[in-house]
Specification:
This protein is α+β, with helices and mostly antiparallel strands. The chain folds into two domains: 250 residues, 2-Layer Sandwich (BirA Bifunctional Protein, domain 2), CATH 3.30.930.10; 95 residues, Anticodon-binding domain (Rossmann fold). It has 16 helices and 16 strands. The strands form three sheets. It has an eight-stranded mixed sheet, with helices on both faces. Helix 1 packs across helix 11 and helix 5 runs parallel beside helix 9. It is elongated and about 90 Å long. 39% of the residues are buried. The structure holds histidyl-adenosine monophosphate.
Length: 444
């Protein structure tokens, strides 16, 4: 009989071992980190009405045009969330979180879905950490947001990042609309020299021509008018404060006139973090101000800014800088032989776990030797060995796995917890092998 194996959907991933350690490390750090900046956790559904994303991200963007997973199970068309900002804004409005005061800063983490061509660092289901601050148009908050993203990366050990910064102005007639017109005029002189994708963008999404990856387009685009030189007075003043504040915070942000981002909701400040080790998909994260979005989807005029970091890309960057992706060692492995000892071991491990120790045992009725092999394979720091004889004498053997036959002692069952806690406390938490001073002291 043949076994049918199902395979993962293209562009999705399973992870385990060192990758899972990196993922857990990022997630564990995020909750504490965002709390330090006054952000509170928010969870939204993984699907929303299609209209929410189309309206927020923009009909003429790659995401809405060709990357959304959209389906219609009933009368309503729904879409697996391709990004988090639109959903947080929807939740902010629907739940009247503005009225509850205080909580204007939200962070989130979870899976997102885009039907892109899979490659290294580009998945169809990926994970993001995001943060959205609603209600303030203060340029100092723009600087705080950029600084926060960079600091999160560096606290995780991801350095060698490049910060790109730009402003795309606002919707006032003398700002982006005027810039767009200047751009259109400049482009129309030699549009035939650009790649076919840019030629399409000329009609659908003009600004995206600026960030085309095609080398010829990049060269041509470097001579085009720059958005930061065509701002209205208010946007110019705003951007000047952002740059000054970033300098004061020690952030080396490179002004990059080709940075326009692939979502239509942005206004004014936009930024991206890239990492040299990531290859073609080098953006670790990015974000910007989206002052018009809350109003666009039915709320009051509310300035806002946010960012999102790609967790898989952070994991890739951590591979290059991370010396320690080892799973925390199992502290105790219980080896027991016979029914009575096995039952006693279950109770003992329960008490050790209540005391905060990690402990596991064999549940497959293996021989002593085979249980020992499992303990070694699991990297256990200590083994507890309990047979009928030990149980009869009210004793247990504690074995320090770093040492050979030397490293084991018999203890009265009642002394076990103290001996173990002492030995583990004396050793570094993540060490692969620990010394066991308590046991050594007790050794004849
Ligand atoms: P985004 O630039 O589209 O922005 O995505 C943020 C990050 O998510 C990217 O820099 C990248 O690291 C990761 N990412 C995006 N697509 C993929 C993919 N297909 N595979 C793997 N990783 C990916 C946003 O999503 C905005 N919502 C950010 C934001 C928040 N702006 C304001 N607030």
């Amino acid at each position: 009989m043949t076994t049918a194996f199902y395979r993962r959907i293209e562009g999705t991933s399973d992870f385990h071992g060192p990758e899972a350690v990196r993922y857990d490390r990022i997630m564990a750090h995020a909750a504490e980190f965002f709390g330090r900046y006054g952000y509170r956790h928010v969870q939204t559904p993984v699907f929303e009405t299609t209209e929410l994303f189309a309206r927020s991200i923009g009909d003429a963007t790659d995401i809405v045009e060709k990357e959304m997973y959209t389906f219609q199970p009933g009368s309503e068309s729904v879409t697996l969330r391709p990004e988090g900002t639109a959903a947080v804004v929807r939740a902010f409005l629907q739940n009247h979180w503005a009225a509850t005061g205080g909580g204007q800063k939200f962070w989130y983490a979870g899976p997102f879905f885009r039907r892109e061509r899979p490659q290294k660092g580009r998945l169809r289901q990926f994970h993001q950490l995001g943060a959205e601050a609603m209600g303030s148009g203060d340029p100092l908050l723009d600087a705080e947001t950029v600084y926060m993203g960079l600091t999160l990366l560096s606290e995780l050990g991801i350095t060698r990042t490049l910060t790109r910064l730009n402003t795309i102005g606002c919707l006032a007639p003398g700002c982006r609309p005027q810039y767009r017109e200047r751009l259109r005029q400049a482009l129309s002189l030699d549009m035939e020299k650009y790649c076919p994708v840019c030629q399409k963008r000329f009609h659908r999404n003009l600004l995206r021509i600026l960030d085309c990856k095609n080398p010829k387009c990049r060269e041509l685009a470097s001579h085009l008018p720059k958005s930061h030189e065509c701002l209205c007075g208010a946007c110019e003043a705003h951007f000047a404060v952002v740059r000054e504040a970033l300098t004061a915070l020690g952030v080396d942000a490179r002004l990059d006139a080709t940075l326009v981002r692939g979502l239509d909701y942005y206004a004014r400040t936009v930024f991206e973090f890239t990492h040299e080790a990531l290859g073609a998909q080098d953006a670790l994260g990015g974000g910007g101000r989206y002052d018009g979005l809350v109003k666009e989807i039915g709320g009051p005029d509310t300035p806002a800014i946010g960012l999102a970091l790609g967790i898989e890309r952070m994991m890739l960057a951590l591979e290059t800088v991370d010396g320690c992706a080892c799973e925390p060692p199992l502290q105790i492995f219980g080896i027991s032989l016979g029914d009575g000892p096995r039952r006693a071991m279950v109770g003992m491990l329960a008490r050790l776990r209540q005391a905060g120790l990690s402990a596991d045992m064999d549940y497959e009725g293996r021989s002593f030797k085979a249980q020992m092999r499992v303990a070694n394979k699991r990297g256990a720091l200590f083994c507890l060995i309990l047979g009928e004889d030990e149980l009869g004498r009210g004793e247990i053997v504690l074995k320090d796995m770093r040492e050979g036959a030397e490293g084991q002692i018999s203890l009265p069952l009642g002394d076990l917890m103290g001996a173990l806690l002492g030995a583990l406390r004396a050793a570094p938490a993540g060490a692969a092998k620990l010394s066991c001073p308590a046991a050594e002291g007790a050794r004849p």
